[in-house]
Specification:
Layout lengths: L8 H16 L1 E9 L6 H14 L4 E5 L7 H5 L7 E3 L2 E3 L1 E4 L2 E5 L15 H13 L6 E7 L6 H9 L5 E6 L3 H16 L4 E12 L6 E2 L6 H9 L3 E7 L3 H6 L4 H4 L4 H19 L9
Parallel strand pairs: 1-7, 1-8, 2-6, 2-7, 8-9, 9-11
Antiparallel strand pairs: 3-4, 5-6, 9-10
Helix pairs in contact: 2-10, 4-5, 6-7
Amino acid sequence: MEQGNEINVETVQSEDVKLMKRLAQIKHKIIIMSGKGGVGKSTVATNLAMSLAMRGYETGILDVDITGPNVPKMLGVEDAPLMADDEGIFPVEVTPHLKAISMAFLISDKDAPVVWRGPAKMGAIRQFLTDVNWGKLDYLVIDLPPGTGDEPLSIAQLIPEADGAVIVTTPQDVALLDSRKSVMFAKKLGLPVLGVIENMSGFKCPHCGERIDLFKMGGGEKAAKDLGVPFLGRIPIDMAMVPAGDDGRPVVLGAPESEGAVAFQLIADKLKETVESLPPRKPVKR
């Protein structure tokens, strides 16, 4: 990443033009957010992206969690090398219709922490969008770190014409408090809220079949209703999901008939219908 103290106005303008050209090739840009960590946001992002790719849509997933990039591991491509030519950096091809880019591809030591302040993070995110040759995509799924800090602000500034944000939460009250902040964050920045997803919503006992609400149930739907935003659906705790993620095969690919995979597929279809029914947002001059 280039560092420097002086700002070259011509270079900045050139980079803005390049960014706009890259983004113009991407039809839909969907931001996945959460108010707090531990709600399964990256699991949701990878499974939604894979669901869209499995339906034949050209899809990219951008891992914007600079200090904790997990998407490559969950897609089984963490050791893939990055390639580049004069046109830019090529994203890693996960499947014939799914591409990915992440800070994890640039870190040789998987245990090494990324200790960066906000400006350095924004510079990296800008390069992921400007220097990565995504080509023509139907969907770009952007996986943000939790909260409303540097990375979400950077994405909102760099992609003001994004279709909108999906908020991931779990049903318990403490998670809902933070998910509400994410909704208000998006609204404050003029970013449409495409909907709320309630993750870890119930668990079906594999022995007796009884449903147990480990983290309550229905809190995400209630929060969506209270805040006047769509509710996209519930994803249960599924025993197939953890090994699928650890093995680098999202559950929609690794166990497509499981309860969790079916839930993801239904939400992906609903999200697709929501996005495609929206009027196009015009690119913003930078």
